[in-house]
């Protein structure tokens, strides 16, 4: 398949607008935003705030998937890093807490990268190991309890606000900007796409595929650590059993909705974040409309199937033979 | 296909290693706890892990064919809720409900297999959608745990073959042993089984050989989901209730059991018997923890993760050795 420029993502943005419009119909005050105590409040802000952890995870996941990999362990890594941050928060200063949690996330990511790049294990299997063991490690750190803390500095990361926006939203935007700068500001993004498209050809062309794979998994672990810190700071505690549970699936879904193919190759960071917002807007919409939250999973499944069918090579062939004959 | 070696001895090496790990583990447990080495403990091991064993056999088929099925845990959950509601609220006779749910889950698997095959989608993401769908459907039916009070359930719970030493071979354990035996026959002695190995080795060559790849793929996922349905029946017998949150994460335990059992996750190689031993090893870890009493249950997850790593490392090493010896043989032929 020839390397194409990333699509503009009209369909994703239309989908997000449509879901927001439905939310508005269901709950007319959906777009109401008010300023209170120097912080913005409203359903729309809530969508951004609640969507932040998945959006951050998807920033790491999209690069991994673009390399034809997958990282199933991000939910468990979130639990580990949240547990570390929560158990250190009241006895150590904030920089130490953050360094410890981020370091742990980076180490987890590099471990996955080592298994994939150096030992040559399939990504699903390699990250499955940490997905299974990670939650056990997190419980080991919290000793099976729900660790709570009262450090106001750490709580600020989850519940505070910067310039009126909730801190998680600001962190997400900053991280998106940073990732765009690193990946698209250099040839790195192109190298990642080349490796995902054809790893052998990329290596023969002189790209250090092994090092890039290692770095990308490390970055994914780092993103998971940030999401884990936010999740722990949000509830002022770490719950090793439930922190980040099933979020790896949401992150993969966000990336897929964002138009990045699971077969690797071209990717879009911005659209992955839009994908995360679509998921969260659906969740919020279902809550606002008064449907039982249980319908959430069914709606999600229908969305996955719709996106999959839209991406399916066979349907694409059908579509182009029907509509593309004039070209 | 025959990547692990040319002769049958080295072909069986991974299964032998798994069995050795189980025997050594059992020996350690027996030396640590004086009452451990009894028929009763072994029979409880079979009963407690019956549902996992059944679903892991289906997973073995899927993984050998080069696919993966993430939906099985949700299908088990759906089955327990469906049975509870059908029997308790709709008044369907239990045996009829069993037959109904087996048909429903088989059709569910067939639909997933067809989606994978016709739309050329990765099995991982299709069965992920199936996982959401089945779990969501069970949430929609009921979010509460519903006890099942049908006579058949209490009757089946009492049914068991009594063995010396107070041990009982229960109905769930018998069902698992039957599925394992049936799975071995189906995989190793039939044309369908041979096709599954071929499919995992190379899809293209299999299609060129004249095997109906579409029908085989649909059949594999149908089988996996139907076994998940059966596993759900066994699970509801075991707990006498239906709950939409039951069997969350069982797909991971099943995949872990398959890998520990020596099956290659890239497909084309594996044994049902290895999976059976893999399930027993996971059960053994749980039993060790409950015998010890002071160890926390999270150690089970860490131990399973370590075992997974050890076995995957072992697989990579044998694969590397096989490739090297093949290269050497090829070089020697010149």
Structure description:
The complex is a heterodimer of chains A (327) and B (334). By secondary structure, chain A is mostly helical. Chain A has a single domain (39-309), classed as ABC transporter involved in vitamin B12 uptake, BtuC (Orthogonal Bundle), CATH 1.10.3470. Chain A contains 14 helices and six strands. Chain A has helices at 10-26, 43-66, 74-88, 94-118, 123-142, 152-159, 167-184, 188-197, 199-204, 209-235, 247-257, 269-288, 295-311, 313-323, and strands at residues 34-36, 39-41, 147-148, 161-162, 165-166, 237-238. A two-stranded antiparallel sheet of chain A has the order 1-2. Chain A has a two-stranded antiparallel sheet with strand order 3-6. In chain A, strand 4 and strand 5 (165-166) form a beta hairpin. In chain A, helix 2 (43-66) packs across helix 11, helix 3 packs parallel to helix 5 (123-142) and helix 3 crosses helix 10 (209-235). The two termini of chain A are 18 Å apart. The model of chain A is unreliable at 1-6 and 322-327 (pLDDT under 50). Chain B is globular and about 70 Å long. Chain B is 75% helix and 3% strand. Chain B has one domain: ABC transporter involved in vitamin B12 uptake, BtuC. The two termini of chain B are 23 Å apart. Chain B is built from 15 helices and four strands. In chain B, the strands form two sheets. A two-stranded antiparallel sheet of chain B has the order 1-4. In chain B, helix 5 (72-88) packs parallel to helix 7. In chain B, strand 2 (160-162) and strand 3 form a beta hairpin. By secondary structure, chain B is mainly alpha-helical. Chain A binds chain B through residues 70, 119-122, 124-126, 128-137, 139-140, 144, 240, 249, 252-253, 256, 262-263, 292, 294-302, 304-305, 308-309, 311-315, and chain B through 68, 115, 118-122, 124-126, 128-130, 132-133, 135-137, 139-140, 143, 252, 255-256, 259, 265-266, 296, 298-302, 304-306, 308-309, 312-313, 316.
């Amino acid at each position: 398949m020839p390397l194409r420029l990333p699509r503009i993502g009209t369909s994703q943005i239309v989908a997000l607008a449509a879901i927001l419009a439905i939310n508005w119909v269901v709950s007319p005050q959906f777009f109401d935003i008010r300023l209170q105590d120097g912080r913005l409040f409203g359903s729309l802000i809530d969508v951004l705030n609640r969507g932040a952890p998945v959006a951050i995870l998807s920033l790491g996941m999209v690069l991994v998937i673009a390399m034809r990999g997958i990282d199933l362990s991000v939910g468990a890594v979130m639990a580990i890093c949240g547990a570390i941050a929560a158990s250190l928060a009241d006895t150590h200063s904030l920089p130490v807490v953050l360094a410890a949690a981020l370091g742990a996330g980076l180490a987890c990511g590099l471990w996955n990268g080592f298994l994939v790049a150096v030992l040559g294990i399939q990504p699903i299997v390699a990250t499955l190991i940490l997905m299974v063991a990670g939650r056990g490690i997190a419980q080991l750190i919290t000793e099976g309890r729900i660790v709570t803390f009262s450090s106001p500095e750490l709580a600020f990361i989850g519940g505070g606000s910067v310039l009126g926006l909730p801190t998680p939203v600001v962190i997400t935007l900053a991280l998106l900007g940073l990732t765009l700068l690193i990946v698209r500001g250099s040839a790195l993004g192109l190298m990642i796409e080349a490796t995902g498209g054809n790893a052998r050809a990329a290596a023969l062309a002189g790209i250090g595929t092994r090092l890039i794979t290692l770095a990308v998994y490390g970055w994914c672990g780092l993103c998971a650590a940030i999401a884990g810190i936010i999740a722990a700071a949000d509830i002022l505690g770490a719950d090793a059993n439930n922190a980040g549970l099933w979020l790896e699936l949401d992150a993969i879904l966000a990336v897929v909705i964002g138009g990045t193919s699971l077969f690797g190759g071209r990717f879009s960071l911005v659209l992955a974040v839009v994908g995360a917002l679509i998921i969260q807007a659906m969740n919020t919409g279902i809550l606002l409309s008064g449907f039982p939250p249980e319908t959430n999973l069914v709606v999600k499944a229908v969305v996955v199937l719709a996106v999959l069918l839209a991406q399916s090579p066979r349907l694409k062939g059908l579509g182009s033979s029907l509509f593309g004959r004039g070209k | 296909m025959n990547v692990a070696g040319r002769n049958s001895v080295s072909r069986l090496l991974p299964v032998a290693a798994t069995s050795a790990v189980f025997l050594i583990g059992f020996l350690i447990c027996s030396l640590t706890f004086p009452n451990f080495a009894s028929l009763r403990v072994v029979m409880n091991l079979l009963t407690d892990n019956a549902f996992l064993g059944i679903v892991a056999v289906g997973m073995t088929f899927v993984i050998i064919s080069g696919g993966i099925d993430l939906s099985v845990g949700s299908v088990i959950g759906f089955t327990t809720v469906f049975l509870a509601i059908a029997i308790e609220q709709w008044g369907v006779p239990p045996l009829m409900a069993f037959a109904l749910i087996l048909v429903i889950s088989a059709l569910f698997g067939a639909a997933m297999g067809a989606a994978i095959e016709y739309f050329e989608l990765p099995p991982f993401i299709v069965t992920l959608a199936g996982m959401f769908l089945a779990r969501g459907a069970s949430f929609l039916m009921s979010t509460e745990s519903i006890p099942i009070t049908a006579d058949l359930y209490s009757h089946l719970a009492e049914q068991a073959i009594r063995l010396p030493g107070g041990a009982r071979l229960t109905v769930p354990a018998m069902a698992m042993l039957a599925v394992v035996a049936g799975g071995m026959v189906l995989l190793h002695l039939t044309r369908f089984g041979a096709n599954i190995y071929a499919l995992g080795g190379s899809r293209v060559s299999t299609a060129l050989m004249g095997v109906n790849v579409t029908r085989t793929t649909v059949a594999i996922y149908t089988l996996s989901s139907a076994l998940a349905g059966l596993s759900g029946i066994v699970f509801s017998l075991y707990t006498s209730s239906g709950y939409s949150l039951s069997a969350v994460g069982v797909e991971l335990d099943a995949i872990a059991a398959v890998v520990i059992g020596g099956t290659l996750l890239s497909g084309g190689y594996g044994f049902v018997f290895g999976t059976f031993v893999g399930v027993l090893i996971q059960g053994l870890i749980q039993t060790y923890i409950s015998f010890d009493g002071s160890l926390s249950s999270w150690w089970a997850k860490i131990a399973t993760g370590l075992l997974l790593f050890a076995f995957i490392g072992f697989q990579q090493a044998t694969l590397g050795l096989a490739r090297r010896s093949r290269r050497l043989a090829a070089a020697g032929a010149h």
